[in-house]
Amino acid sequence: MxxxxxxxxxxxxxxxxxxxxxxxxxxxxxxxxxxxxxxxxQAPEEAYFTLALSxxxxxxxxxxxxxxxxxxxFSGPVALLEQFSVGDRVRITTTTVTGxxxxxxxxxxx
Length: 110
Description:
Elements: H1 2-14, E1 20-32, E2 46-58, E3 73-76, H2 80-83, E4 89-94, E5 102-107
Antiparallel strand pairs: 1-2, 1-4, 2-3, 4-5
């Protein structure tokens, strides 16, 4: 029985994590200090990007209604502020399907 359960769980646990992929135009940027619950030490400063979304999907290709991505704000390394600014059209891939942490960010034409 244990082997059958392991065979069933192995594919579920070995899959790549589902990610959220959004496209839109940056409407606001800046830095913020994330809250942490790890004691008195503060988390490092992060960049944030607010987008006017044009589309959203999961990494498996399924569509996500743009209205469900609320708020359309994403955080990442401060160095991204040197590469992207308000008005840029971008594609952001998050670390998880429900998270807002930037895994990858690229500029789109137009």
